[in-house]
Structures are given as C-alpha cells and as structure tokens.
Design brief:
With about 375 residues, the chain is an alpha/beta fold. It is built from eleven helices and 16 strands.
C-alpha cells in the first residue's frame, strides 16, 4: 500500500474517531479501519463509552457482520492498540488472533500501561508495522488524553465571546447576546466534547447560567465546576440543578458548606493559604478524576488568573462584528505590561467564519 493510500485510510480512521468526541471520556477517541491487501474496506469502528469495545474490536466485529475474512488484512488505527487488561481485554491480542498482517498506527500510546508494548507485541507476532501516519491530526483529537497522561493535568481551553474591540459585556454587565445564534451553537459543541466546564462565582451571580449543553445533541453532559472561594453560590442557582456540580472553595465554615452540600453540590477546599483557590492544585485533582479536556467559560478576573498562571493551552475566541467601546468590560484583567514584548504572545491555529461571527483558535507561544 502506498504512503498516499495509508494517509487516505488513516484520515478515514480519524473521521471515525470523531464519532467518540462526546462519549469516550476518560478513554481516548480512537478510530479503526480494516482493509484487504487491495485496499477494500472490510470493517470500521470507533471506541465506545468506557467499559465497552475499543475501536479495533468494533472494526473486527463490523467485518464479521459484513461477512469478511480479515486474515492477511491491514488495520489502520489512530492510536497504538492497547496491550493491557483494563475494563476490556487487550486490543493487540484481538488483532493477532484475527490474523491481521499489518498495522498502521498514527501514534504511540502515552499511557505507561501501553507505551510501545502494544506495538512490540504486534511485531513479535510477525505483524508488519507503520507508525506516524497523520500523527499531528491524531494528537489533536486526543489533546486532552495526552495532556492528562503525560502532564498530569487536563488540556485547558479558554472560551471567550467578545466584540471586535475585545469587550465581553457592557459596563452595567449586560452581555446577551454579543455573538449570534450560529456562534453560540458552535460553542455548545466545544462544551459537549469537554469532560468538564468551569466558571467562576462572578458569572454565577451575574448570569445564573446552567452551563450545560443544549444547542447540540449529546449523550452525556460535561461535569460543571464553579470556583467560589467564599462559597457565595446561592442554593437556588441553576448550575446546581441536575447532576452534581463541583464547588471549589477556600472557606470551610459549616454555615456555608452544609446548605450547599444539602442542595446537591460536591465541595472541595483548595485554599492557597491566602484565602484564594489554588489553581495549580485544582488541575492535577481533575486529572486524577479522569478529566481530559477542561473548558473554562468565565469572566475577566478568572480568565486573567488562568492566563497569568500559564494554565491555558488553547484560546477559543468568538468575535462579533460589534464595537462596544469604553468602559465596556474586557476579556481579561491582565496587568499593565511595560512593553509589547512582555505581553502574552499567541499563535493563530484556525480562523473560521461562524455565521456572522469569527471563531479564532489560538495557542500561547
């Protein structure tokens, strides 16, 4: 099979992996395509919710249901097949037992339980290997999984909707709606793919948001997190309805904690010693709980805290063709940098029109 065909079929496997954008957490999103020596697709699959089949097993089952023999076939997988027993048996065993002759993998799995062992076992079984096809695209779709495993913290995406002059609300707090329907619906896609959505107490008190996914169909809702150092969240807040919301605070007074616990909130104290929340302690905690992607949707103060602490991995900016002027509220209350070079510097990854607005994805450099 030529390198061009390998890329074409890996692209198909990556498209299949996207079917798991909202469902595979905490597992990675993986797609698999099995083809004959001539390039005919015999079976396809993607990773199911945790505890169910991985992509390789799904593709093998699909081939069987189509009536195809996969002996001597090639499997295109967007991540190294696992080699350990977790909630499911090792995928490399399934490929070996099925008689697969060649495996093309986009990336090695960073999980220490795998980390090359799956590829090694395939090679020891006499299976030909090609690794690294469309690796950057494969890493992109699992940026959160790679971050959690390799860095011990979620991938943090900071979402801001603003006017073209960088304002997020009028001086009196009015902000509905700066962006149009299409951009707001698109933002719900990013909520849906996140493991958790985080906001601050200022947003809760000002807007009483639900912070759930409504504009796109999703089989699960992301976990909701509120940073509320002094536990000022009202027990009637909409964000406390439905599944348990995590309230992170720095105040252990029973008269504040008990009513919120009775309202169904989950509370954790992460005091930095100055009465504020320790963000550097929060992210490892969320990673330990299986959070791959964290979407921050907050106000200028909390946005600035994440930026100043170097905790933002990607900016998701929606810019509307409006000018709100002064003294409307800005995106982040950052310090007054002395020079342009001293200010945070970003690189644009993507600029996409969404309806009448622009979506900009950028990364810090």
């Amino acid at each position: 099979m030529s390198a061009a065909n390998d890329e074409l079929l890996m692209a198909r496997a990556l498209a299949l992996a996207e079917n798991g954008l909202y469902t595979t957490t905490p597992n990675p999103r993986v797609g698999c395509v099995i083809t004959s020596a001539e390039g005919q697709i015999l079976g396809e699959g993607w990773t199911q919710p945790a505890g169910q089949n991985h992509a390789e097993v799904q593709a093998l089952l699909d081939a069987k249901q189509r009536g195809h023999d996969v002996s001597g076939a090639t499997a295109y997988v967007t991540l190294e097949p696992c080699s350990h027993f977790g909630r499911t048996p090792p995928c490399c065993n399934a490929l070996i037992e099925a008689g697969i002759a060649r495996v093309v993998a986009a990336l090695e799995d960073p999980n220490p339980l795998v980390a090359g062992n799956g590829l090694k076992r395939l090679q020891e079984a006499g299976i030909a290997l090609t690794v690294g096809v469309l690796s950057e695209a494969a890493r992109e779709i699992n940026a959160g999984f790679f971050s959690r495993i390799a860095r011990g913290r979620p991938f943090v995406r900071l979402k801001i909707a603003a006017s073209i002059d960088g304002k997020t609300a009028m001086a009196n707090g009015h902000s509905q709606w700066i962006t149009a329907d299409a951009a707001r619906a698109d933002a719900h896609h990013w909520r849906a793919r996140a493991c958790a959505v985080l906001t601050g107490i200022g947003t809760v008190l000002a807007d009483d948001p639900q912070m759930n996914v409504r504009a796109v169909a999703t089989p699960r809702q992301p976990r909701r997190i509120v940073l509320d150092s002094q536990l000022r969240t009202p027990v009637t807040a909409k964000i406390l309805t439905g599944a348990k919301t995590l309230l992170v605070h720095a105040d252990t007074h029973p008269e504040r904690t008990e009513p919120l616990t009775q309202a169904g909130a989950e509370l954790v104290c992460l005091d930095d010693g100055k009465g504020k929340i320790d963000l550097h302690a929060l992210l490892p905690l969320l990673a330990q709980q299986g959070t791959n992607e964290l979407l921050v949707e907050a106000g200028a103060t909390l946005n600035a805290a994440f930026i100043a602490n170097g905790l933002v991995d990607e900016y998701l900016l929606y810019l509307a063709p409006r000018l709100l002027g002064h003294p409307a509220r800005g995106m982040a209350y950052l310090p007054d940098y002395a020079t342009v070079d001293a200010a945070p510097h970003l690189r644009f990854k993507e600029i996409t029109p969404i309806g009448e607005d622009l979506r900009i994805r950028a990364i810090p450099i």
